[in-house]
Amino acid sequence: MNWILLIIGGLFEVGFASCLGKAKDASGIAVYGWYAGFVVCLTISMLLLIKATQTLPIGTAYAVWTGIGAVGTVLVGVFVFKESAEFWRIFFLATLIGSLIGLKFVSSH
What is the tens place of the pLDDT at every residue in 6-28? Predict the structure, then answer.
């Protein structure tokens, strides 16, 4: 169950990073909405990480949490913010995903 919470927490990390990107491009009162989304996603993400680390090793949990956030944020950057999707960027993203899967399988919990 805590692995599921950790994955959801990682997705909320993608949410708070994406809100920062959208706030940068927003103007007027919309900026505050994106910052509010950032705070909500950050809070949920951190609470889920805290819950997951009650039974998962902190090193593994933190690496997976940040990895999900990093991979998801790169994907949002490519598909939403039109960032580059050059070969080496995708290659190293794939190696990061492989590393996250490996950490899951070698974790003692």
Answer: 999 999 999 999 999 999 999 99
